[in-house]
Structures are given as structure tokens and as C-alpha cells.
Amino acid sequence: MTTGPSGGRPVRSPALATFLSFLWPGLGQFYVGARRAALVFALPVAIVALVLGLQALGGVEGLIVQILTPSIALTVLILIGLFGLWRLLSMGDALVTAGRRGSWRRPVPIVTFVLLGAVVIGSHGVAAGGTWLVYEAANHVFIGVADPEAGPSVGPSGSVESGVPGDSAQPTPEATPTVARSRINILLTGIDSDKNRDHRLNDTLLVLSIDPKTGDIAMISFPRDLARLPTPDGGTYDGKINSLMSYAERRPNAYPAGGMAALANEVGFLLGAPIDYYAAVDLNGFKTLIDRVGGVTVDVKQALNDPGYGGWTQPGRVGFRLSKGKHTLDGETALAYVRTRKGAGDNDFNRARRQQELLLALQKKLADPAMLTNLPGILDDVAHTLTTDFPPERLSEMLTIARAADTTAVKRYVLGPPYAERPTDAGDYILVPDMARFARLSMGLFGAESRYATE
User: Fold this and answer.
1) Which of 342, 336, 341, 365 is nearest to 414 (CA)?
2) Which backbone phi and psi does 388 adopt, to 5 degrees?
3) 172 by DSSP, 3-state: which?
4) pLDDT, tens only, 52-79
5) What distance in Å separates the CA atoms of residue 72 and residue 393, rounded to the nearest whole number?
6) Fewest C-beta atoms under 10 Å: which of 246, 248, 267, 366?
């Protein structure tokens, strides 16, 4: 070690000072004795690190889930850029401060700064790129919560001829009645946009009802053939419930809030509890997500044999079979598992139960911390599969519930017989809800919070 002129500050290695500030801004300044500069460079980074550390005490998964909020993802993206710039500034200042007599201009310090600077730029560029993907995915998935003052508009009665809803609907400003309540109700709908159709059908209609305080979870499936449905305005929608969304989308003047709002409001009205949020899943993208997580394991209660199933991507492949017992399903087989319903002894109600089972299996797989390493790919799949108005700020809360959930304790209902029966005067296959049974189920689930309890 040597000293500077007139017994000044010791002369230190510029290359080592640069390296130390590369490790942590301000550390190189501390090494050369520039304590005030060390504090200036180190303190902001220490504060950010402390905040992140406190957040991580609740679990790394929770911290990562928070980044899925678009506003937080954007903030993290900006911080990554600023931190990278701050590191470069600290490295440069340490280099110059340590080489006061021009020693920083020598080849070794310069090469050290250039190489380490390239590492900073490269690593922060990769981190920023990944965060940008998260931001874009979150923006695609979370479309924002509708204005509660506007309220979804669900149509009054339509007429049907040959099963096609008529044009007699008029707009209504009424939404499902709301009261102070403890549960969160989310409508999960699987949308099948087959290339041979000119409209979209909701092949899956499932309400996930969660009590955040107790962790109690209920799954209620609505058969797609429910028809002759009472509506909030006192009328009747004669078409099948799985056609309501497309029906409303084709009539924007009658349904200004859109097809999904119309469907959510009608489901909430039938259930007796408002739908807070929805999540729409494209079924073709669903299989990609299942492949991404390595498949899902289900326990098949009844052997399946549907020789007419033709939903495969492989040309010429027809039929679907699955023996009784536990199976790990890839994406395409899982999709067939929740689509098939025409095999011997099978029906739409069994299919709804399988849909519930598959969702629970996927939830269990996604809640596994091992999936964090696969998060970028999962996010990309989800961005092409899911659209929801669920607030991303509540994702951490939902993750906590999902991790603690006992899937065997989930209450599961399929609103086929006896909740709905086929009428004797119908030509097409439809199910007419027994509103008295719907009311009893609703009050059993929601108690005094059910709208039926006030009627």
C-alpha cells in the first residue's frame, strides 16, 4: 500500500475498486476511503434490498406473484434499469477515485471496467426483458375491473325458434342485487371457438366461491343445456345458457356491457349471489398450459369410451378411451377428458365433474414451488389462454388460499338433475332449472347473503 502526496489518502487498485462496486454500489468507494461517496451509492440500494427482504418474508412465491400486477411489473422494470445505471456510475466513480494520479487509464483498470460493465448491461438487459414479458402477459390477462356503477346488463326475455334465441331482448340497467358479504365468487368459463362455428359457446360454466377468511371453497357447475332461464328483470331467456354470451355480443345495443357481463350477471342471478369476477379460458390454449407443467394427475372413477370423439389435432384420429384408475394426462388427453360426454354411461354432468377435478389437479400443480423455474413459459401460455377481470393485487391472497386448500374438502355441485330437469314439451335437449332447489342450495352455501334469503 502506498500513500498519496502530502500523506493523503492511500492509493488503491482501480481494478479492485471497480470490481467491489460491481458487487455492491459504494463498496469500491469504501475500499478507497471515500466514505461519504460510499454512503451515497450504497444507501439507496440497501433501502430497496431491505424492502424486498421484508416482502420475501411472506414467501418467495408471494413476492413473485406480486410482480404479476402490471403496475408493479412496470415499477420493477424501471428499477432494474435504474439499478443497472447506478452500478455503472458507482463503478466509474470508484475507478476514477482509486486512480487519482491517472492510474485508472492503464489497460488493466479499463479492461476490468469494460468487461464488468458489459456483464451489468447484459444481466440487467436479461432481467428487464423477462420483466417486460411478465408486464405484457399481465396486461393481456388482467383486462381491468368493470365500473361497478355501470353494472352489467343482462337481457330480459328472448324468444326461441329451433333453439336459437330471438331478437326481443331490451336493455336493462339492473344488476344482481348486492349485499355485504364475505365470499368471492368467480365465474370460470371455457370458451370453445371451433373453426367450424360462426359463434363462440361456453362449454364450461363453473362458479368458484371462496371464503378468504376460512379458506372454504365451493365449485358449482352449470350445465350448458340450462334453458328457459328467469332473468333479473322478471323475464325469461329461452335459449341455452351457453349461447347467452354470443347472443349478447351480437346485440350491443341491448347489452352495452358486453356478452361476458351478461353471462356473469345471469349466472349470479340464478346462483343467488353476485359474480365478482370472471376468468375466460380458451380451451385450445388450456392443453398447452397443461403440457407446460408436465401434465396433471387425475383419478378416473369410471372408465371412458367415446368412439365418436374427434377433437384430436392428429388427422384421422377418432375415439377416446381411458381406463379406471390414476392417470397423468398430457394437454391433449386432458382436453379430451373434459370434452368427451357421449360414451356409454357418460353425460354432460359427469363431464362437469371431470372439469372440476381437472381444475383442482391443475391448481395443485401450479401451487407447487417447483413451478417457479418454469414461470416465464407458464406466463406466456396463460397470456394466450386466459382473460380475467380479477384484480392482480389479490393474487397473493389467492395463492395463500390455494396452498392451504384441501382439495378433498372442496364442496362440489353440478346443477343437473335434480336441480334441473328435462321438460316433456321440448324438442331439443334442454334442462329447466328448479328454482326452489336452486334457492335451497344458494341459502345453504351463502346463508343470509343469498338473494333468495330476502325473498
Assistant:
1) 341
2) -150, 155
3) coil
4) 888 777 666 666 777 778 888 899 999 9
5) 9
6) 366
